[in-house]
Design brief:
812 residues, alpha+beta, 5-stranded antiparallel β-sheet, 3-stranded antiparallel β-sheet, 36 helices, AP complex subunit beta, ARM-type_fold, AP_beta, AP_complex_bsu_1_2_4, transport
C-alpha cells in the first residue's frame, strides 16, 4: 500500500491518538505515527501540539524516521523556538555520527531552522562539518554557512566561517568547490562591496579543473563565478574560453546559457583578427540552435537570450536564419520572438527568403501575428535599402487583399518607408488614398493624415480628404487630432489661397473647443507663427525631416552590455537590469563587459591630470524646454557660441541653454526680460591643483605670477539679448578673480544703464562691485570691461558643477 493512506480525511481525537503512538515502544508504530503527523502538516493541519513528542523520536538510528522528524522540526521551530532548543543536543550528537548521511542531514537541518536563539549553539557542529573527512558533509556544510549568514551575518564573520568557506574553493572534491562558490556568491550578492570572491589566476584554474567533474548545477555556479572575473590579458581570456567551450555541448540548457555568458564576456578581450576568435564564433551557433528544439517555454527563454546575443554579435547566427522561421504549431509568444530575431538577422544576402516568409505569415489567421508580420516587412525595407522596392511591392499586394487590419498596418509602415526614402516611392499614394474610408484605428488614420499633409502638393483633392477627417474632429483620438492639425497647417503653407478657411477652422477647433493642453498649445503656436511671420512658419513646419534610423527598437548599448552579463537569468528574459525588478535590502551590482581588445580602455580609473587631445563631445538632442523656447523665438538653429577650451584637469560640462530659451519665452508677454548668460569657467590649471586653487580658495599658495588667460568667446548672442552681444573669459590679477567682458551693441539704438547679477553657484562667485560701463554704448560699438569677483556669495551645488548663470537685466 502506498503512503497516500496517510492523507485520508482525519477524524476527531486524532491528535490524542498520534500522541500515544509517538510515545510507543515499537519502532514501526512510531514511524507510522510520524508519517501521519507529516501528512497532517502537509495538508495544512496544525500539529504543533505534538512538538515535544516528535522531538523525542529524534533519538533513533533509523535514517528514514530521522529525516521525517527533521522535516517536522524545520516547519515548526520558528513557531516553537523555546521547544526547538530541546533538539540542540541531538544536532550536536548527530554531527558526530559515524554515518556521513546523518551528519549531513543534521547540518542541513541546522541551516534551515531560522531561530536566533539556537544559532550560536550550532557554530561548533558547523565548524566540525566544514572540515569533515567526507566530501558530502563538507558540501552540505558549505551551503549551511550561506543560510546561517542570512540569519546572523555578524556571527558568521566573527566565527571565521567565511575564511573556511574560501579555503573550500581549493578542496579536492569538485562538488565541495561548487557549493563553496555558490555560498560565497550568495553572500557576496547581499554584500556587494565585501570582495569575498577574490578571484586570481590560481583560483580560476582550480574552478576550471572542478568544472569538468561537477553536477550540472555545480557547473552553473562555477560558470557564473567565472563570468565575474576580469582576465589580465587576451591570452588568459583565450585560455579560459578554450576550457569553457566543452560546456556548450551539455544537455542542460542552463549550463549552455551560462557557458555562452562567459564566452560572450571574454570574447570582448580577444582581437578580432585572431584565428581563435572566428573559431569561437562558429562554435557558439550550434548550441544556441539546439536550444530551439526544446519545449516552447524553454524555446522562449532561449529566444529572449538569443535576441540579446544577436544585437551584440549578429555574426554568430547570420547563417542560421531558417531555424527562426515560424512553425504552424508554435505558441504566439514564440512566434513573435522569432519574428523579431528574423528582422535583426535580415541582410542583403537573405532578404529574399525572409520577405517570402513574411508575406506567407501575413495571410495567417492570428491577427496579432499578422500585424507583426506586416510591420516586419516595413522594418526590412528600412534596414536593407536594396530590398525597399520589393518590400513596398509586397505591401501593395497585401493592401489589395482588402483585409482591414492588414491594410491599416501596411499604411503605418509605408509612412515610415516614406520617412526613410523621401521622393522615391510616392507613386503609391494614390493606392493608399483609395483605402481611406476603411481606416478605423487611430495609428493608421494618423499615418494616412501625415502622408496627405506631407505630400499635399501631389494630391489634387488633399483639402477634401483632410476636411473629411475634420468633420468628426472631437471624436478622434488625440494622436489623430494632433496629426490633423499639423497636416492642415502644412496644406495651408503649400496652398494658401485654397485652404484659408480650412486652417482657420482647425485652429479654432484646437484652441477654443479642445480641453487637451497638448493640442491647444500646438494650435496656439501655429496660430502665432502664421499670424506673425508666415515665412518663418514655413521654415519651421515644412523643415526637412531627419531620416528615421534603421533599428528603432535596439536596446541602449550600456544596458545591452549589462544584460549580456546576466544571460541565463530573469534579467535576460525581461530585458531589464535586475535593479528594475529586484526589491529589498540586497544591493544589486551593475555589471559591464570587459574593455574591448585594442580599445585602449583601462580597468583602473584614468589619471585626471593626463594631457592629450580631448575627444569632441557627442551631439545631444536638445531637451523639450529648449526646443519650445526656440520655437517661440522663431529660431530653430542651435546656438553657435563656443565654450572656452579648458585643460583636462578642469573638465567642463555642457553649456546651460537657459539663456536663449528664457529670453524668447518671456519676451512675448513682457516688453523686456532678463537674458540669462551661461558662462563656463576657463583658466590655467593651478600649480597646487584642483578647483580650490583656481579660485584662490587656498590663499593663492603656489600660484604662478603670470597665469594663463583663456581667449574670449561669445557667451551671449545678440539675437538672444535684444542686440547686446557679450564675449568674455576669466582671469586672475593680483590674487583677485576678474571677469573680462566685451560688450557689443548690434542693435539700432543706444544702450545705457548696464547691470549684472549672478545666480547662486557651486563656488560662491559674486560681483565684488557694480559693473562699471562709463559711456553709453552706441550701435556697432564695442566696450571692454573688467568686473572683479569675490567667492563670498551664496553657494549652491550646480549640475554640472562648473555651471554659472549670469543675469543681465534689460538695458535702455
Amino acid at each position: 500500500m502506498t503512503d497516500s493512506k496517510y492523507f485520508t480525511t482525519t477524524k476527531k481525537g486524532e491528535i490524542f491518538e498520534l500522541k500515544a503512538e509517538l510515545n510507543s515502544d515499537k519502532k514501526e508504530k512510531k514511524k507510522e505515527a510520524v508519517k501521519k503527523v507529516i501528512a497532517s502538516m502537509t495538508v495544512g493541519k496544525d500539529v504543533s501540539a505534538l512538538f515535544p513528542d516528535v522531538v523525542n523520536c529524534m533519538q533513533t538510528d533509523n535514517l528514514e524516521l530521522k529525516k521525517l522528524v527533521y522535516l517536522y522540526l524545520m516547519n515548526y521551530a520558528k513557531s516553537q523556538p523555546d521547544m526547538a532548543i530541546m533538539a540542540v543536543n541531538t544536532f550536536v550528537k548527530d554531527c558526530e555520527d559515524l554515518n556521513p548521511l546523518i551528519r549531513a542531514l543534521a547540518v542541513r537541518t541546522m541551516g534551515c531552522i531560522r531561530v536566533d536563539k539556537i544559532t550560536e549553539y550550532l557554530c561548533e557542529p558547523l565548524r566540525k562539518c566544514l572540515k569533515d573527512e567526507d566530501p558530502y558533509v563538507r558540501k552540505t556544510a558549505a551551503v549551511c554557512v550561506a543560510k546561517l549568514h542570512d540569519i546572523n551575518a555578524q556571527l558568521v564573520e566573527d566565527q571565521g566561517f567565511l575564511d573556511t568557506l574560501k579555503d573550500l574553493i581549493s578542496d579536492s572534491n569538485p562538488m565541495v568547490v561548487a557549493n563553496a562558490v555558490a555560498a560565497l556568491s550568495e553572500i557576496a550578492e547581499s554584500h556587494p562591496n565585501s570582495n569575498l570572491l577574490d578571484l586570481n589566476p590560481q583560483t580560476i584554474n582550480k574552478l576550471l579543473t572542478a568544472l569538468n567533474e561537477c553536477t550540472e548545477w555545480g557547473q552553473i555556479f562555477i560558470l557564473d563565478c567565472l563570468a565575474s572575473y576580469l582576465p589580465r590579458d587576451d591570452r588568459e581570456s583565450q585560455s579560459i574560453c578554450e576550457r569553457v567551450t566543452p560546456r556548450l555541448s551539455h544537455a542542460n540548457s542552463a549550463v549552455v546559457l551560462s557557458a555562452v555568458k562567459v564566452l560572450m564576456k571574454f570574447m570582448e578581450m580577444l582581437p578580432k583578427d585572431l584565428d581563435y576568435y572566428g573559431t569561437l564564433l562558429k562554435k557558439l551557433a550550434p548550441p544556441l540552435v539546439t536550444l530551439l528544439s526544446a519545449e516552447p517555454e524553454l524555446q522562449y527563454v532561449a529566444l529572449r537570450n538569443i535576441n540579446l546575443i544577436v544585437q551584440k554579435r549578429p555574426e554568430i547566427l547570420k547563417h542560421e536564419m531558417k531555424v527562426f522561421f515560424v512553425k504552424y504549431n508554435d505558441p504566439i509568444y514564440v512566434k513573435l520572438e522569432k519574428l523579431d530575431i528574423m528582422i535583426r538577422l535580415a541582410s542583403q544576402a537573405n532578404i529574399a527568403q525572409v520577405l517570402a516568409e513574411l508575406k506567407e505569415y501575413a495571410t495567417e489567421v492570428d491577427v496579432d501575428f499578422v500585424r507583426k508580420a506586416v510591420r516586419a516587412i516595413g522594418r526590412c525595407a528600412i534596414k536593407v535599402e536594396q530590398s525597399a522596392e520589393r518590400c513596398v511591392s509586397t505591401l501593395l499586394d497585401l493592401i489589395q487583399t482588402k483585409v482591414n487590419y492588414v491594410v491599416q498596418e501596411a499604411i503605418v509602415v509605408i509612412k515610415d518607408i516614406f520617412r526613410k526614402y523621401p521622393n522615391k516611392y510616392e507613386s503609391v499614394i494614390a493606392t493608399l488614398c483609395e483605402n481611406l474610408d476603411s481606416l478605423d484605428e487611430p495609428e493608421a488614420r494618423a499615418a494616412m493624415i501625415w502622408i496627405v499633409g506631407e505630400y499635399a502638393e501631389r494630391i489634387d483633392n488633399a483639402d477634401e480628404l483632410l476636411e473629411s477627417f475634420l468633420e468628426g474632429f472631437h471624436d478622434e483620438s488625440t494622436q489623430v487630432q494632433l496629426q490633423l492639425l499639423t497636416a492642415i497647417v502644412k496644406l495651408f503653407l503649400k496652398k494658401p489661397t485654397e485652404t484659408q478657411e480650412l486652417v482657420q477652422q482647425v485652429l479654432s477647433l484646437a484652441t477654443q473647443d479642445s480641453d487637451n493642453p497638448d493640442l491647444r498649445d500646438r494650435g496656439y503656436i501655429y496660430w502665432r507663427l502664421l499670424s506673425t511671420d508666415p515665412v518663418a512658419a514655413k521654415e519651421v513646419v515644412l523643415a526637412e525631416k531627419p531620416l528615421i534610423s534603421e533599428e528603432t527598437d535596439l536596446i541602449e548599448p550600456t544596458l545591452l552590455e549589462e544584460l549580456i552579463c546576466h544571460i541565463g537569468t530573469l534579467a535576460s528574459v525581461y530585458h531589464k537590469p535586475p535593479s528594475a525588478f529586484v526589491e529589498g535590502s540586497r544591493g544589486v551590482q551593475h555589471k559591464r563587459l570587459p574593455p574591448r581588445a585594442g580599445s585602449g580602455e583601462s580597468t583602473e580609473s584614468p589619471d585626471v591630470g593626463q594631457s592629450g587631445p580631448s575627444e569632441a563631445p557627442p551631439a545631444v538632442i536638445p531637451s523639450q524646454g529648449d526646443l519650445l523656447g526656440d520655437l517661440l523665438n522663431l529660431d530653430l538653429a542651435p546656438p553657435t557660441a563656443t565654450v572656452p577650451s579648458v585643460q583636462p584637469s578642469m573638465q567642463m560640462g555642457a553649456m546651460d541653454l537657459l539663456g536663449g530659451g528664457l529670453d524668447s519665452l518671456m519676451g512675448a508677454g513682457l516688453g523686456a526680460a532678463p537674458a540669462a548668460m551661461p558662462a563656463s569657467l576657463g583658466g590655467a590649471p593651478a600649480v597646487g591643483g584642483g578647483l580650490g586653487d583656481l579660485f584662490d580658495l587656498g590663499g593663492g599658495v603656489g600660484m604662478p605670477t603670470g597665469s594663463y588667460v583663456a581667449p574670449k568667446t561669445v557667451w551671449l548672442l545678440a539675437m538672444k539679448a535684444k542686440g547686446l552681444e557679450i564675449s568674455g573669459t576669466f582671469a586672475r590679477r593680483g590674487g583677485i578673480i576678474q571677469m573680462d567682458l566685451s560688450l557689443t551693441n548690434k542693435a539700432m539704438s543706444v544702450m545705457t544703464d548696464f547691470a549684472i547679477q549672478f545666480n547662486r553657484n557651486s563656488f560662491g562667485l559674486a560681483p565684488a562691485g557694480p559693473l562699471q560701463v562709463l559711456t553709453p554704448l552706441s550701435p556697432n560699438q564695442t566696450i571692454d570691461v573688467s568686473l572683479p569677483l569675490s567667492t563670498s556669495g551664496p553657494v549652491m551645488k550646480m549640475e554640472p558643477l562648473n555651471n554659472l548663470q549670469v543675469i543681465y537685466p534689460p538695458t535702455k
